[in-house]
Amino acid sequence: MSSIRILGSQGSRSKEAFTTCIYVNQHTLIDAGNIIHALGEEALHVNRIFFSHAHLDHIIDTAFVIDHFFSKRTETLYLYGLPHTLEALKKHLFNDVLWPDFSQLYLPNTHIPAITYVEIDLQQSYAIEEGITLTPILANHSVPCCGYFIEQEGSGVLFSGDTFRNEALWKRLNEMPHIKALIIDVSFPNHFVNIATTSKHLTPAFLKEEMSHLKRTELKVYVNHLKSLYTEQITQELAAIGIGETMILKDAQRIDLASGALQQALHTSKNDKRVQKLTEIGTALSANESLDVLLEMIVTEAKNLTNADGGTLYLLDNHALHFKVIQTDSLHIKMGGTSDAISWLPLPLYLEDSTPNKTMVAATCALEDRLINIPDVYEAVGFSFEGTKQFDKGTGYRSKSMLVIPMKNHEKEIIGVLQLINKYDYNTHNVIPFDCEDEKITLSLASQAAIAITNTSLIQGLETLLESFLKSIIFAISKKSPYSAGHIQRMVRLSVMFAEAINEDQTVYANKHFSAEEIKQINFAALMHDIGKLATPEQIIDKACKLETLFDRIGLIETRFALIQKALHIAYLEGKLSLEEKSIKESLLESYWHLIQRSNTGVEFTNDEDRASIQSMAQEPWNIDGMTYILLTQDEAYNLSVQRGTLTKEERDIINAHAKLSVDILNRLPFPKKYQRIPEISGNHHEKLNGKGYPQGLQGDEISFEARILAIADIFEALTAHDRPYKEGMPLSKAMKILYTMAKEGEIDEDLVRFFYTSGLYLNYAKHFLPKHCMDEVSLDF
C-alpha cells in the first residue's frame, strides 16, 4: 500500500510553511501550493494536478512548474478541476497577461501542448498509477470547490478541500468505513467567527459542531490549512476539543492509505534528509522565545525524528531532574509545556545517604553524562523500572524500547535529560529498538535543544530584568509622587484591558488582534508613559492648590490679612479711623479672603471678574495710619488667577515637557526588536488626532493605534482618579461625557471611545478601581 505525502499543509505562506499540496505519487498531485520547493527536480515528473479550487494558495506553483521545466518536458501537464476552477486558470493566470497561455504553447520539438485542461465530473472516479483512484466530493467554500477520496486496494483517505459546514461530507464518511482518515480545513481561531463564516472556513469550534455528525470513532481526523499567524492559538483551541498537536499536519509528513496512520517523513527518508530536517528543527528552536513552547517542540521533534511514541523532558535544578514535558501519542497524553501542569515529584540525583541515584535511568544519564539505549525496559539490568511498570499496569500500555540522552549547554554542563520510548516500525507495526542513527541524530538534537533552552532562559531572564527595571522606575516615581505612581498603575491596567477587549471583540474589531508580545509591548509602553516626570519637580506634579510651592502660601496671606485687621483695629482705637470706615474695610478684607480661599483650591473655574479682583489686590496696597500693607504679591496674584486647575502656564509647560523627555529617555534604551515601538507608543499618548497635542503636534494616521489606546486610558484614569490631592474624581457620566466630547471634536479616536463605551469596558474598569459613589448611570449617543 502507498502513502500520500503532505508537501504543503498551511493556510498561508511563510519562510518555514507552505500552502496546500498533496503528493499522491510521482506523477500526480492534489493542488499546487508547494511543488518547486518540496520536490525540486523531481517536479519534472509531475503530469497531473487535481485542483480543489481556484484560490491562489492552491494553484500558485502551477505557473512555476510548467515554466521551470518547459524545455525538459515531453508530456503535457494535465490540469484537472471544476469548471469554475479551470475558467479561473484560463482567465486570470494563463492568459498571456499575468502568465503565458501554456495551453497554446507546444513542448519543444513536439505538437503536444504544454498544459491540457480536464474538467472533472463529481460522479466519476479517476484511476491513476499503482491502483490509486481519486474521487471528487463537493465542498462548501466561498467559490466552487471539491475535496478528493484518495483510495487504493479498498482503503483510503479523504481530503476535504477548503470547506465550511458540510453535512454531506460526514454522511459519506459514515457510510465508508474503508476511509481511514480525514484531512480537514481549520483556518481561523474561534474569535474570528465572522471572517470564517464569510470566507467559509472552519474554526475549532465549528469543527467540533461538524464532528457531531460523525458516527465513527476509529476515523483519524487530521487538520490542515491553519493560517500561520494564528497557529499557536488554533493549536490550543483544537487541543480543547480533543485534537492534539500530533493531528495537525506539517509539511513533509506522510499518511498511510491502508491505515490512515501518520508516518513521519524522516522514517522513509535518507539520512541526508534527516540531517536537513534536523537543521530546520535547529532553526525553529533558535527562533522560539517561549520556554514552554520550546520544551514542547523539543519532545515533539525528537519523537518525529525517531518515530518514538512517547517522550519526556527533564530539566536539572538543585540536584534533581524536574519533569517539564510528557507526551505519549498512542495514549493521547500531553502534559507540561503549554498543556496541563505536571504534579509528579522530581527525580533526585542523589539518595538520602548522598550516594548517586544509579537505579533511575534518567538520573544515571545525567550523573554519568552518557546516552543509554535499552531495547526492552522489562529485560533491562541495573535499573529500576517499577514506576514504568506501574504506569503500564494502570494504562494498559507496554513500555519497551527506550533512548535516554543527556542535554548539555555550550559550556558542556548537563542541564537536563531527554527520554524517548517505543520506537515504532510502520512497516511491521511493531515497537523496535532505537538504532545507532537514532542515537546520533538525537544527540545532535539534544545539543541544539540545550543551547536553545539556555538562550531562551537568558532571553526570558533579560525580559524579566527589563520589566523589573521598568517597575523599579515606577517605584522611584512613587517615592517622589505616590499619586503619579497610582495613576501609572491604573493606566497600565486599563491599557492592557483595552487591548484584551479588542482581541475578544467580534464586531468592529473582529479582524484586529494583538499577539501576546504586542500586548506586552503595550504594557511596557504604558508603564513608561510618564517616565519623564522623574525630572519634574514634585511640587509641580502634586501641586494641590494654586499658591503651593514647597508649602501652601495661603498661610502667609492669612497672617498678612490678620496683621492688616489688627492695624485697622488699632487705628480705630486711636481715633484715626471711624467705626464705619473700619467696618467697610474689614468687610472688604473678609470678601477678599474668601475669594483667595476659593480660588486657591483650583476646583472651580476662576471667572474674569474674580481675576480682576485678585489683580487689584496685588496692584493696590492698603495704607493704614501712614503704613503700607501688601495684600498679595504679583506672583501670588498670578498663581491665583489661573482659571482652571492649579498650574500656571509655565508649570503646565514643565509638566508637558515630560512627554518629550519620556521619548528621549526611552530612545536611549536598547529595546529588543519586538519592543522597538515602545518609545513611539509611549511618547505619543498626548498627541491629538487634530494636531493640537504635544510634544510633536502629530495628527491623524501619524498617531499609531496603540498610542491612541494609551491616550484614552490616560485621560480616563486622570478624570476618574480619586486619590489626587488637588481634585475629586469625576463620576463616570461626567468622565465619559468629556471623552465623548473630545472624540466628537477630533481630539481622540472616536471608534475607540465608542468601543470603550459599547463594550462596557469603562464599567469593567470602574468596578475594579472606582468607589461606588462615582459609578452613576452613563448614556451616550454616538
From TrEMBL:
<dbReference type="Pfam" id="PF02112">
    <property type="entry name" value="PDEase_II"/>
</dbReference>
<dbReference type="InterPro" id="IPR003018">
    <property type="entry name" value="GAF"/>
</dbReference>
<dbReference type="InterPro" id="IPR029016">
    <property type="entry name" value="GAF-like_dom_sf"/>
</dbReference>
<dbReference type="Pfam" id="PF13487">
    <property type="entry name" value="HD_5"/>
</dbReference>
<protein>
    <submittedName>
        <fullName>HD-GYP domain-containing protein</fullName>
    </submittedName>
</protein>
<dbReference type="Pfam" id="PF01590">
    <property type="entry name" value="GAF"/>
</dbReference>
<feature type="domain" description="HD-GYP">
    <location>
        <begin position="560"/>
        <end position="771"/>
    </location>
</feature>
<dbReference type="GO" id="GO:0004115">
    <property type="term" value="F:3',5'-cyclic-AMP phosphodiesterase activity"/>
</dbReference>
<dbReference type="InterPro" id="IPR036866">
    <property type="entry name" value="RibonucZ/Hydroxyglut_hydro"/>
</dbReference>
<dbReference type="InterPro" id="IPR000396">
    <property type="entry name" value="Pdiesterase2"/>
</dbReference>
<dbReference type="InterPro" id="IPR003607">
    <property type="entry name" value="HD/PDEase_dom"/>
</dbReference>
<dbReference type="InterPro" id="IPR001279">
    <property type="entry name" value="Metallo-B-lactamas"/>
</dbReference>
<dbReference type="InterPro" id="IPR037522">
    <property type="entry name" value="HD_GYP_dom"/>
</dbReference>
<dbReference type="GO" id="GO:0006198">
    <property type="term" value="P:cAMP catabolic process"/>
</dbReference>
